[in-house]
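Narrative of activities, Objective 1.

The group set out to show that a structural description can be obtained from nothing but a protein's sequence at a throughput compatible with the screening campaign. Below is one input-output pair from the validation batch, recorded exactly as produced.
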Amino acid sequence: FSATTYALSLRRNSLFPDSTTAIIDATTGHCLSHYEVINRIETLANNFTSILKLSKGDTALILSPNLIQVPILCFALLSLGVVVSPANPISTRSDLTRFFHLSKPAIVFTVTSVVEKTQDFHVRTVLLDSPEFDSLTKTRIQIHPPSPLVSPVTQSDVAAILYSSGTTGMMKGVVMTHRNLTALAAGYDAVRVNRKYPAVFFFTMPFFHVYGFTLSFRAMVLSETVVIMERFSLRGMLSAVERFGVTHLAVVPPLMVALTKDSVTNGYDLKTLEGVTCGSSPLGKETAEAFKAKFPNVMILQVCLRKSYIMT
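Output recorded for this entry:
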């Protein structure tokens, strides 16, 4: 079974109904419930098979900022055994060449603002911000005769290829299997906390980073609400905390440093904030202490992300 199938199955342990809000675009206020997200995942997966003829073993390169469509896309692809390969949409031509060399994608999902970068690679391209893609998530289309049956997804199948920063040598592809993601989902379920209301996470990191990619599984398993911004800004984040009752921030150490500055949070009501999850790199002791001094009631959790094997 796929990591998507397992993550969705764990939702039976949730105390919250599917009508709970799953994801919010902080800029537009547009939101989707968990019911809507799950329905779109299943509809999109069906249409990928019947219309785009995607199948197990294909690789999909995703070049997109944080949009509501991205987690829906990733879960749909994973459910089919299509290898998900998200990357930074502002990557250079050299970076893109490296991505194509490592993952050899059969299709690219991107947005209008960066689609020109991919045209020279002559790979089928789908725009996430197009009416056509929106239709693929909403209307299930049956093709006759139906697509032939394919082999089921197994735990040892490759689920995702993410990209390292290239700090030591050339950029590398980091491979995660369905077993990796299934274990991650199981871990989130094992530490499930009984809450009166779902946690509301603000994601400051992109979905193409392993930090954001894996936390999207947490949100699905635990029926949490995720607030995203296409273009991050500190003031926008603080405003979103106030507007949407954010309970948790997912941040990196430099942002923790910024939040400790005296005047940064002036004028914002952050009383709903319960915790901060800090990842990507180690959090310094001085920064943690300064943060706790300013926000004594907010818990700090340092995340350690372990990767699978490397492609070179």
